[in-house]
């Protein structure tokens, strides 16, 4: 196990865009998810992706929320997706989403999705897409859905990061929560092998596992990060870094570190508890400039 610290980051620098880059070549992120119950999740994820350096942002959410999201995030293009009776993404959302994949380099799928979203129906057409260059970050209900699609995810030609919290990890691996608490390092590595993906097991401390690579451990950015929407921000940072060209393991590691250090900075300035998830993204450019 290797500590995720300043030495590791210095040895694994992020790719920098050339001076003459344009917004399309700097990285196009599509974030898909949200619901009528959690309409703001994509704002958190999308802003985080832009703050991590993505050039272009697109958000896709349930049709009734989409116009409001456009007002909240004027930097983004907004697409509506079909919803179900629970106000979550519906069965047809995955097929519709596939029609937008040509416009993005990285898809962050899942923030703001809950138990009523038909995750497997949404995720299956996305992971069946033969687009080798697509980078994918899976979060929230799409982690649970991934459990049913291990073979397809393993065979996916793209670059995949899964960001489960312990409850989602138990769903992903079909095991008891207790097993995650007893051996987080082992289960993160097992998941990485099963899905052939980078796995970020979140919690007070975070484990990053990647097939064929050493395990990383981040000791945590403080309990203020245990706040609604904090994980949505992390998924967005990782997606933004991947769209800039970072490899999945480096994007996950830098993302976890930036998220944690942003929490520490807010804790020092505002107080250890009570800062908002939406305040985290604003810390990222400064941290990237002076890690
Ligand atoms: N709901 C909201 O107010 C907001 C939601 N937002 C976004 O919506 C998405 C879904 O969020 P969500 O809250 O609906 O689902 P989620 O957190 O997975 O809880 C479901 C169940 O999982 C479990 N569980 C959770 N953490 C656990 C842990 N560490 N360790 C173990 N188990 C854990 C827990 O089960 P329990 O322990 O209660 O049995 C819980 O009942 C997500 O992207 C989120 O960021 C934000 O954008 C804005 C505010
Ligand atoms: N006690 C804690 N100390 C440090 N970091 C924490 C703590 N609790 C949660 N976190 C971090 O906060 C984030 C919470 O993500 P998640 O559980 O998905 O929340 P949400 O669903 O509300 O966005 C993760 O990055 C996790 O590592």
From TrEMBL:
<protein>
    <recommendedName>
        <fullName>ADP-dependent (S)-NAD(P)H-hydrate dehydratase</fullName>
        <ecNumber>4.2.1.136</ecNumber>
    </recommendedName>
</protein>
<dbReference type="GO" id="GO:0005524">
    <property type="term" value="F:ATP binding"/>
</dbReference>
<dbReference type="InterPro" id="IPR029056">
    <property type="entry name" value="Ribokinase-like"/>
</dbReference>
<dbReference type="GO" id="GO:0110051">
    <property type="term" value="P:metabolite repair"/>
</dbReference>
<keyword id="KW-0521">NADP</keyword>
<feature type="binding site">
    <location>
        <position position="41"/>
    </location>
    <ligand>
        <name>(6S)-NADPHX</name>
    </ligand>
</feature>
<feature type="binding site">
    <location>
        <begin position="202"/>
        <end position="206"/>
    </location>
    <ligand>
        <name>AMP</name>
    </ligand>
</feature>
<feature type="binding site">
    <location>
        <position position="232"/>
    </location>
    <ligand>
        <name>(6S)-NADPHX</name>
    </ligand>
</feature>
<keyword id="KW-0547">Nucleotide-binding</keyword>
<feature type="binding site">
    <location>
        <position position="231"/>
    </location>
    <ligand>
        <name>AMP</name>
    </ligand>
</feature>
<dbReference type="GO" id="GO:0052855">
    <property type="term" value="F:ADP-dependent NAD(P)H-hydrate dehydratase activity"/>
</dbReference>
<dbReference type="InterPro" id="IPR017953">
    <property type="entry name" value="Carbohydrate_kinase_pred_CS"/>
</dbReference>
<dbReference type="GO" id="GO:0052856">
    <property type="term" value="F:NAD(P)HX epimerase activity"/>
</dbReference>
<comment type="subunit">
    <text>Homotetramer.</text>
</comment>
<feature type="binding site">
    <location>
        <position position="112"/>
    </location>
    <ligand>
        <name>(6S)-NADPHX</name>
    </ligand>
</feature>
<dbReference type="GO" id="GO:0046496">
    <property type="term" value="P:nicotinamide nucleotide metabolic process"/>
</dbReference>
<feature type="binding site">
    <location>
        <position position="165"/>
    </location>
    <ligand>
        <name>(6S)-NADPHX</name>
    </ligand>
</feature>
<keyword id="KW-0067">ATP-binding</keyword>
<dbReference type="InterPro" id="IPR000631">
    <property type="entry name" value="CARKD"/>
</dbReference>
<dbReference type="Pfam" id="PF01256">
    <property type="entry name" value="Carb_kinase"/>
</dbReference>
<comment type="function">
    <text>Catalyzes the dehydration of the S-form of NAD(P)HX at the expense of ADP, which is converted to AMP. Together with NAD(P)HX epimerase, which catalyzes the epimerization of the S- and R-forms, the enzyme allows the repair of both epimers of NAD(P)HX, a damaged form of NAD(P)H that is a result of enzymatic or heat-dependent hydration.</text>
</comment>
<keyword id="KW-0456">Lyase</keyword>
<comment type="similarity">
    <text>Belongs to the NnrD/CARKD family.</text>
</comment>
<keyword id="KW-0520">NAD</keyword>
<feature type="domain" description="YjeF C-terminal">
    <location>
        <begin position="6"/>
        <end position="291"/>
    </location>
</feature>
<feature type="region of interest" description="Disordered">
    <location>
        <begin position="1"/>
        <end position="26"/>
    </location>
</feature>
